[in-house]
Design goal:
Length: about 350
Amino acid sequence: MAENSVMDNDKYLDEIEDSIRTIGVLTSGGDAPGMNAAIRAVVRRALAKGLKVRGIRRGYHGLLKEEIIDLSARDVSDTIQRGGTILQTARCKTMRTEEGQQKAAAICKKYGIDGLVVIGGDGSFAGAQKLANLGVNTVGIPGTIDLDIACTDYTIGFDTAVNTAMEAIDKVRDTSTSHERCSIIEVMGRDAGYLALWCGIANGAERILMPEEHDYDEQALIDDILANKKRGKKNYIIINAEGVGDSINMAKRIEEATGIETRATILGHMQRGGSPTCKDRVYASIMGAMAVDLLCAGKTNRVVGYKNGEYVDFDIEEALAMKKTISDYQYNVAKTLAL
Ligand code: ADP
Ligand code: F6P
């Protein structure tokens, strides 16, 4: 079976495989608020089970450089409310090579890491899968502000990032209304439009541009901006996803075609920082503990997720093969509400 619910299965809570004595934890790829809550949960859940915990700094890069430290309960004190990741994170090209993966697995064995928790996105899970194939027990936890991991409805950091962006967009709207301008606000998300869609709905934007949208027509957008002005609206807010991009040039083109002052604001990395929301702290804590429970139950090559209101886990290969699409219905609702 691809999926099972750890929460419904008490045996995971007590059973510890003899082979598991030391748990390692790393963060990889882009950081996300709530990663510290997950690290803290991994450390304390493992210590509570009598295991040793090793923290690996700077993701797979740090693993290959043997940047490995022991972690105690006190090392994660006062971290649940902090943004970023106390272990630091990195992207590492060498880990994509067979040689790098073999070296990483050998280092895990050298440091007695019987189970490794990898907090990151799909790329980081692909690395965890390679390590699992080389005999290192691994469990992934979804950490990315992009929400672009198919096997889960929740990823660590999205809730904080979307709230941060929403507050920033409210501020841009104030000045945009005062000046009766058109404002293009670009949000992150890499190739996915989840941040854009959520901000578009939460901020009552007139238009949402997402990479998943196939009917993007700039002339139609220009016509709508002009019609909007005729309807007596005082501003026109466009939430543009990073995957569509080109906000600064788009603003110039729109201003030229409509005669309406148009400004572009790219929110950028501020969306990745800040103190995690309650949701990100709680979900990350539960996922951190679950990852340890899975490893203790002898599981490997798994990724934790949250699906249909339940915490679940999947085989990494199956999780990476899953597809996720943005809701047409939600996008359609957003359009209607912008009347
Ligand atoms: P994310 O984990 O957020 O998707 P990346 O795609 O940048 O972020 O991946 C993070 C890191 O995971 C990469 O820098 C690399 O070290 C490792 N990684 C990505 N893809 C693979 C792969 N196919 N095989 C092994 N390691 C990978
Ligand atoms: O994956 C998180 C993310 O913030 C994306 O939204 C964005 O495309 C990317 O990382 C930016 O990466 P970097 O921090 O390397 O500029």
